[in-house]
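Entry 14. Ran structure prediction on the chain below.
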Amino acid sequence: MKEPTVILTLASDIQKREEISKRLLKFGRVKIIEKYANAPQEIEEAANFVINVAERAEIRPELGYTEIIQGKTIKKFVFKGSNLNEILNDVKQNVLGAAYKLNEKLQELEKAESELTNLKNEYTKLLPFKGVSTDLTFISNLKRFVVKFYLSKEPVTFECCLSSVLERGKDEYLIVVSAEANKAREIEQIAYSKGLVELQPPSGSPEANLKEISKRIDDLQRNFLKLNEEVKELKLSLENEINAALESLQVLKEVSEIGKPEGRFIISKVEILRSDIQRFYNNFKDIAIIGGLSDADEVELKNPMYMKNFDPLTETQGIPGPYEIDPTPIISIIFPFFFGFMFPDMGQGLVLFILGFIIYMKGWKNKKKWGAMLASFGAAATIMGLLSGEVFGFDVSSIPILGSFLERLAVLRSFSSLSTEAIITMLSVAILIGIFHLTSGYFLDFKQTLRKDKEAAFFEKLPILIAYIGAVFIGLSIIGSNYSFNLFTGRAALIGVPNRILSSITVPVTAISVFLFLFYTVKKENPLDASIQFMFIIIEFLANTISYSRLAILFLVHIVLMKTLNETVAMGAVSLPLLIFGNLGIMALEGLIVYIQSLRLHVYEWFTKFYMGNGTRFKGITDGLTHALIYVV
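Output, structure tokens:
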């Protein structure tokens, strides 16, 4: 489910800019469309300073999954004030000092890093002279003679003057050339023609300098590593404070930038949820003229508590557009069902449920949602495992005390037998599930097209839906006729309706829907393109439907894997670590594979039928706050 947004224009006296900003902050669920003014210097400088510190320190806005499982939580800071300045002062008193403290340590680290880099560069320049213990200072004082040093990838000799070659390493040679001063130009020309790099001779003894610099590098390296650890520790201890400062200052900066000056007035454009229009009028009617109501393109996903946890799955394909249906409620039911169907194990499902529940309880924002999704996957796997009579691959009857009771609930145990009949039945069930899932996709396509283009809905989308349902019934009739393709003999597979009755309805209805589709499409395109498009749709019917057989295949793969693993029980006590790590490996690897396949069935088979995801999500000025709460009192 989603809610549209609207754009409103506020016109108020320029003296009331701060009051407008304060009330927008108090309103919260509002987005500032256009920003004209600069924020007060104090807010601007504080915000830019904290942003700079956060970027340099690579402050994370959220905890990692490992930290969540370990029990770490996000600390929230509350900032109050009757105006923006009071709230700013509250931020400064409570959390801004953490940014200054971290900044001091960062400056120490950056200074040490700069010194270390400069020393390493100096060391690199001296390396070609390694082993030269002579003080080379005299070279710069020579008048009648010249001495030059070059770096080369191969030995080079200068026939015009005295030269020597010192091997420095693989494909690296130091060429030393000495001659009378009047030959300096000739030496430079020869060096240029051979592509040699001239080196400036260092002052003092290169060997002695290298040893001294090497010692200083070691000292600085130790100091740098020590400072780096101190910064990491300080960053971890101050992350909550710095994030709170960052979030609150960015909000204060944003609400301070509102208002385009027009003489004595300021004009402001804001976006709010359609359901908030009356509340907005009530809050601003005494200080501003409100008008210019128009629809916006952004939407807010407003799903019930459980369903909203699946928003991230929908968002992987984009936010629903203005005319699109939000598929999240359907995903919240079907996705866990698919996962559980392909991962039928009561024991492993419980482990996933507990892990997901921990992440849900300790996490924040999207991590909380992913935790809830993982818990739902685990719950679905637990239920499917109970129905199929499996717990860590063993029969549920092996569970002490509860075994006999749980055994009576295992109504799908026969499908775990891996008999030919069981396999065929599971494949049939999987295909049937796919038919219902795809039908819902074609129906949603028809329903949402009806909102914006009734002609296309009834002459293109509805015929495709009817043609798919008709193709399914015709397929059942063919199977029921023992593949004789005589659609009027025998009974349709699965449903048992006589083919002469079923086909007398489905064949003409399907033919009419195909005719309507082609007739409508030919009006927009040439007949050849329309025919090719229809052929692709028919191929898509078949390919997409068969794709759902993966539900049954992965169900059977899980059964086989667990039976193979549990055969190690015959090894005695040695089998215990194998069983533990084997179950963990299967949960991790197969769980990932099952998730990917569930996602694939939604993204490639289902979403492609109706979903474009070209919308934009509405985000109010206070929606991104995870470490801070701002109250205008």
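The chain is about 60% helix and 15% strand. Will compare against last week's run tomorrow.
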